[in-house]
Amino acid sequence: MRLSRYFLPVLKENPAEAQIVSHRYMLRAGMIKQQQAGIYSWLPLGYRVLRRIEAIVHEEQERAGHIPLLMPTLQPADLWRESGRYDDYGQEMLRIRDRQDREMLYGPTNEEMITDIFRAHVSSYRDLPLTLYHIQWKFRDEMRPRFGVMRGREFLMKDGYNFDVTKEDALHAYNRHMVSYLRTYERMGLTAIPMRADSGPIGGDDTHEFLVLASTGESEVFYDDAVTQLKLGDRKVDYDDRDQVAAVCREFTTLYARTDETHKQELFDAIPEDRRKVGRGIEVGQIFYFGTKYSEPMGATVQTADGRAVPVHMGSHGIGVSRLLGAIIEASHDDKGIIWPEGVTPFHCGIVNLKQGDAEADAACEAIHAGMAALGLEALYDDRDERAGGKFATMDLIGLPWRITVGPRGLKNGVVELTSRRSDESVELPPEQAVARVAAIYAGH
Ligand code: 5CA
User: Fold this and answer.
1) Which residues of the chain form CATH 3.30.930.10?
2) Is 61 in the pocket of ligand 1 (CB under 6 A)?
3) For the sheet containing 416-420, what is the strand order?
4) What is the CATH code of the structural domain delimited by 349-443?
5) Whose CA is nearest to atom 6 of ligand 1?
6) Mean pLDDT, range 440-444, rounded to an integer
């Protein structure tokens, strides 16, 4: 992509309304534009990252055996009367009437609708286990939308729902979600710690939140520092192997890690003092097991092998897809701008031409750009007629993890410069080797 033909409306000044670094950088890097409180347009650069995050979420859900579908954003109020939540949900729910005066709402979550789909089409235990999910916009009329996409009113969520015959089966689905989430966040360069949580309006007994540690997080967290060292890495997990999946969950939930809602001081005090940490965290996901809370009132039953009709055991499992952009930036930035992890970067590499219009420099940049494309890599080529300082500042702000700098002086010696955004270290290489090096870095992502 040539920057001269792209749409990247970067801001020079710090926007006054942004209180935290991720919001500030998302506005300055031309990723989002606020349209109303808590409602954003996703400008091209932000939309690229959003789609990469969605793609990772889809891949990891499908790997766990969960099936994507898509439900509408608008829902009928009557469905929510069946579960009893229409009146309970309160002012966070955006209620609308259509021209026939029918009551509708913009979905804040989809337990009722998915249960309606299930009861219409599934009636036998033979069709279970089943987990369906979608990635869809939600609306919650938050009292205090703030911090940009972090606490929006309209936001993108992945929400998945499992249907099982027994509680034991449903707890395996819960564990599957936990493991798939750990892998999802790791691929985005995040450490997200599962913490025992409170179920709130979703209901249920078993629930964990996934928290990314960050000083700007909205939740207070208490944890054993050893928990931050746990990594799933590239170990193979067989999602049908209950014991293996449960063992991974035990590994990640045994050390003390809780939010202020469930914190127990006496358990915390038992941790060796040098590992006892109090901090803040951003909630990037939550999983719930709630049994028959929705299936019973809504009549979602299956016939068992011995002919009984039983309400199915369910859970719901959410990932804050749009919030993740903010969380990743909070976890990965410096005073010059964003530092995207390779897994989610909007472009794989930037190309900076130090002397636009110089025939040799232009040709080398074109060749690098084309060489990247041939290897399936997307580069953002800054081909504007601007000072080098301005080009570097833009690249640093938008945070591409790798940059290739091309100038007449280097080309005389047959080299360009490959620079890591994270470490700021550079190496000089012939152009084709620089391209090969970038391709090798991304081979694992
Ligand atoms: N139905 C369940 C799970 S499918 C549910 O709604 N869970 S939730 O309320 O915990 O939301 C799931 C995730 O969405 C949260 O962990 C959080 O990361 C994200 N989220 C919730 N509210 C907002 C908001 N106002 N802005 C951005 N993201 C949000």
Assistant:
1) 3-338
2) no
3) 379-382, 349-353, 402-406, 416-420, 426-429
4) 3.40.50.800
5) 109
6) 92
